Amino acid sequence: MTGKPLTILGIETSCDETAAAVVRGTVPGPGEILSNIVFSQTEAHAPYGGVVPEIASRAHLEILDGVIERALCDAQLSLKDIDGIAATAGPGLIGGVMVGLTTAKALALATAKPLIAVNHLMGHAMTARLTHGVEFPFLLLLVSGGHCQLLGVGGVDDFRLYGSTIDDAVGEAFDKTAKILGLPYPGGPAVEAAAKTGNAKAYDLPRPLLHKKGSGRADFSFSGLKTAVRQLAQNHVRVEDVSASFQRAVIDILVDRTAGAMAMFRENFPRANTLVVAGGVAANQAIGAGLARLCTQEDFNIRIPPPRLCTDNAAMIAWAGVERLSAGVVSDVLSVSPRARWPLATRPG
Ligand code: KG4
Ligand code: ZN
């Protein structure tokens, strides 16, 4: 572990956010965010009700250089002051990942600085170290548009999988529910806002895999919930009430599965008791409150990064670069390639 803080430029282009950031710090954090530029392409994709990969990669290509310049300018640094360049190398939409990783490679070659190819999910997973300096090990609930997993995190290379979704990711369930209800894209924030004035007890929606003992795993399923929302929406319903009932069902599922994973985590790490919630869905305040109640009951500490660091950003990628470079891990510029799929778990729970 080096004592000297590392200053890393991070680049994120795996979905519909074009982002660059400069972060400085030493592990385990907290680190200092010197700049954090997120250019959201929401408007370009909104008419289609979801991300269109071709539109996304073209937009990344057009604006990434300017976003990187802004990030350096805001941090009042130039490339020569940077210790390394970190970029998302997957998982994600391959066209976008190629744009970000290729740009990072070019910068690394031109400046002779180390390149760190980062797993996007690792970025989400380590954000609570950037913001709160959370020590290993911790239990991680990773909830985003593409993923829903419970993992025991023993170190940067030690991810034990306790459970994952067998169908849709939780963010996807929010996005689909929004689409069914005629709410704007992206669905998560829209459903959360509508739910605020809705009655969560209005409709009794299914809670798949709830209290399903025996498998010993903390797996999720959201497709039945989505189907139930679709059927419900065929009737004359209040959008706010459906949103609130849907969100309540999601909270119950997440709390139940996290409680199951806590038991598995305690077996692996008897003295640890921190729950980290990460990924775009962690921005949801009602979900955070539900999990906080569980943590009080179970004697766990809960750490959730602020909303703008839960949704996709490059500060988390830069911080993952700090973690990697501190451990002496750098990527080979010529051979590293983008990956559409890249699982985080290194071993079963
Ligand atoms: O982590 P993220 O920005 O991108 C991925 O890596 O997938 O997560 C995006 C997902 C979307 O499905 C979005 O609807 C959801 O996170 N999301 C939310 C909220 N904010 C974003 N879901 C529920 N409530 C929110 N407030
Ligand atoms: Zn993400």
Q: Label the overall shape.
A: globular
Question: What is the C-level CATH assignment of the largest domain?
Answer: Alpha Beta
H/E element order: EEEHHEHEHEEEHHHHEHEHHE
Number of DSSP helices? 11
CATH superfamily of the largest domain: ATPase, nucleotide binding domain
Please give the CATH architecture of the largest domain: 2-Layer Sandwich
Number of domains: 2
Detail the poorly predicted runs: none
Q: Assess the beta-strand content as a share of residues.
A: 15-25%
The distinct bound ligands, ions and cofactors come out as: 5'-O-[(R)-(carboxyoxy)(hydroxy)phosphoryl]adenosine, zinc ion
Q: Quickly give the structural class.
A: alpha/beta
Oligomer: single chain
Q: Biggest β-sheet, characterized?
A: 6 strands, mixed
What do you see in this structure?
The protein is an alpha/beta fold and 349 residues long. 42% of the residues lie in helices and 19% in strands. It has two domains: 6-126 and 310-344, 2-Layer Sandwich (Nucleotidyltransferase, domain 5), CATH 3.30.420.40; 136-305, Nucleotidyltransferase, domain 5. The chain has helices spanning 42-45, 53-74, 94-111, 120-132, 170-181, 187-195, 223-232, 239-268, 285-298, 307-310, 315-326, and strands at 6-12, 17-25, 32-40, 84-90, 115-119, 138-143, 148-155, 158-164, 274-278, 301-303, 347-348. Helix 5 (170-181) runs parallel beside helix 7 and helix 5 runs antiparallel to helix 8. The protein starts with 5 loop residues before the first strand and ends with a strand. Bound molecules: 5'-O-[(R)-(carboxyoxy)(hydroxy)phosphoryl]adenosine and zinc ion (ZN). 5'-O-[(R)-(carboxyoxy)(hydroxy)phosphoryl]adenosine is lined by residues 15, 144-146, 171, 174-175, 186-189, 192, 279-281, 283-284, 311-312.
